[in-house]
Amino acid sequence: MMQSRKIFKDYYEFLFGDHKQWFLSGTMPNTVISQLEDAKVFKRKNGPLVFWHEYRNYLEFLDKINASPSPYSHEIQIKFTKLTDRFLTIANLFEQNIVEKEIVKFRRSFIECIRDFLNKSKYINRALNKPRGYPGDYLVFENLYDGLITSKGIGRYFDIFALNDLLSQSIINRKNKMKDLIKKNIDGLNKKLITILNVGCGSCREVEELLNEHNFINKKICFDFIDQDTEAIKFAKRKLGKFSKERQFTFFQTSALQLFGFGDRGGLVLNKKYDMIYSIGVVDYFLDNVLEKFIAYYSSHLNRGGTLIFAICSNIENRTYAPMVWFYDWYIYLRNPQDAIGIANTTFSLSNICIVWEKNRQIFFVNCRKK
Ligand SMILES: C[S@@+](CC[C@H](N)C(=O)[O-])C[C@H]1O[C@@H](n2cnc3c(N)ncnc32)[C@H](O)[C@@H]1O
C-alpha cells in the first residue's frame, strides 16, 4: 500500500501542481478548513486543498484502526462511519474539479491506497474484486440482503458502514418494493395461469421472499428467469427448490442482450408471452440505445394488458453513489425519471408509463402497461 500511496501522491501532484506547497507540508490554512462545508467556495478554488487534507486525515485514521489490537467498539464505529461519510462527501465534491477523462483513473489510484483495508471487509471484497467477472453478482446482493457482518478488525467497520449506507438501504428497499409490485400484479390479474419473466434474476431473492410470505391459493404462477451467470442460476434453483411442487420455475442461462441482437446470434429464442416482465439491477449497465431495444424487445413478449417494470438508479443525488465509485470500483449509468420516461416512450405511450419510487427516493421503477 505504501507504493500505491506514493503513486497516488504523484498523480495528485500531476493534477494539482499549483497547490504543491500545502500538499507537501500537509498544513492547510484555517481559512481553508473553515470553508470546508461551503460547496461553492470548494468548487471555485479550494477543492484540491480540502480534498488532500481530508485524504490525509482519513488515511491516518484508517491506519490507526488497522494497527490497533483493541476489539470492535461501537464508539469507534460511530466515528468510522462519520469520517467515512465525510470523506466521501468531500471526494464527491472534489471530483468536480477533475477533468472527466482523469476521474476514473484518479479514483482507482485512490482505491489502491486502501485496498488492503477494503479487502478485509468480506462484503466490499467481493464487490470490489468481482470474482464472477462483472460488478454486482448474486452473492454481493445476497450478502447485502442478509446484512451479515462476518469480517474482523477494520473489515468489520467497513462491513457495517457499507451495509448501512443510503445506497445499500435503497437497494434493499428496491427488492422489497419489487416484491410488492409483483404481488399487486398477481392480485390484479383475474386469471388462473399467470406468467412472469424476471430478466437478470441473480439469486431470485424477491421471489423466494414473496412465495414464503404468500401462497396465492387458486393461482398457478409460472416464473421464467434469465441470467447470464451459471452460478447465480444454480444458487437460485437451490433456493426456490422448496416451492417447486406448487410452482413452476424455468431458468434460461443466456445474455438478456443477445436475445435482441447484441453479441453473438443464435442460442435461446424466447417464444413465450408473459403477463409481467421485470428487471432490477440490470438496465443501469445499459447505454440508452440498448435500454431502448431492451424495452422494445421485452414489450413484444407481453400479453395484452401485461406489465413491464424495470428499476433505475436515479441521478438526482449522485453523492449516494460515492461508495460505489470510490470504494468498489463499480460503475453504472444514472438516469432521471424524465429521461427514463422518454426512452420508454419510444415503445409505450405516455399514458401507459408511470414512475414508482422506493422509500428513500434513490431508485425508481418505470412501470409500463401494454394496451
Ligand atoms: C445486480 S444483479 C441483480 C440481481 C437481482 N435482480 C437482484 O436485484 O437481487 C444483476 C444480475 O443480472 C445478471 N445480468 C446482468 N446483465 C445481464 C445480461 N445482459 N444478461 C443476463 N443477465 C444479466 C447478472 O448475472 C446478475 O445476476
Description:
- The protein is α/β, with parallel strands linked by helices.
- The protein has two domains: 118 residues, no CATH class; 202 residues, Rossmann fold (3-Layer(aba) Sandwich).
- It is built from 15 helices and seven strands.
- It has a seven-stranded mixed beta sheet with strand order 3-2-1-4-5-7-6, sandwiched between helices.
- The longest helix has 29 residues.
- The termini are far apart.
- The relative contact order is 0.10.
- The model has no long low-confidence stretch (mean pLDDT 90).
- The structure holds S-adenosylmethionine.
- S-adenosylmethionine (SAM) binds next to helix 8 and strand 2.
Please name the defining characteristics of this protein.
single chain, about 375 residues, 2 domains, globular, Rossmann fold, binds S-adenosylmethionine, alpha/beta
Q: Gist?
A:
By secondary structure, the chain is α/β, with parallel strands linked by helices. It contains 15 helices and seven strands. It has a seven-stranded mixed sheet with strand order 3-2-1-4-5-7-6, with helices on both faces.
